[in-house]
Amino acid sequence: MRLELTKRGDYALRAVLALARATHEERRSVRDVAIEHGIPIRFLAQIMTALSQAGLVEAALGRRGGYRLAKPAAAISLLEVVEAVEGDSRRRSCVLRGGPCAIIGVCDVHEAFAAAQEDVLHHLGETSVADAIRR
């Protein structure tokens, strides 16, 4: 069983963690964060737009512009960051059949896997960016 992020989710988390490590007044450019974390600049620019639209980061234009967190790191969950760029994280296909669940009724392991998924999502929702940095 795999629990992994897409590149978008991976890059979004790395960027938000980089912003969280900066002072609240400090703004970071996409270019600086991309170079520091080995992320393609154009791809990170798209990710930052999605994070901004989700209200997690704020952007300022101009020579002294850049990005910073829109709210304290303790108020942003890891799940919010991932879902801002990947959408809803809930699995939509049956773990045994590969297709949609409940076409002919749910499979024998549906409840166990659905509960495990909810536990993971709950944990990510309860873990803040600040918590992740402290660990």
Question: What does it look like?
Answer:
The protein has 135 residues and is mainly alpha-helical. The mean pLDDT is 89. 18% of the residues are buried. The chain has helices at residues 7-21, 30-37, 41-53, 78-86, 110-126, 129-134; strands at 57-60, 66-69. It starts with 6 loop residues before the first helix and ends with a helix. It is built from 6 helices and 2 strands; from the N terminus they run αααββααα. The protein has a single domain (7-134), classed as Arc Repressor Mutant, subunit A (Orthogonal Bundle).
Short description:
The chain is built from 6 helices and 2 strands, in the order H-H-H-E-E-H-H-H.
List the helices and strands and how they pair.
Blueprint: H1 7-21, H2 30-37, H3 41-53, E1 57-60, E2 66-69, H4 78-86, H5 110-126, H6 129-134
Antiparallel strand pairs: 1-2
Helix pairs in contact: 1-3, 1-4, 2-3
The coarse silhouette is elongated
| Gyration radius from CA atoms, angstroms | 17 Å
Mean pLDDT: 89
What is the CATH C level class, in words?
Mainly Alpha
Primary descriptors:
135 residues; mainly alpha; Arc Repressor Mutant, subunit A; two-stranded antiparallel ribbon; 6 helices; 50% helix; 6% strand
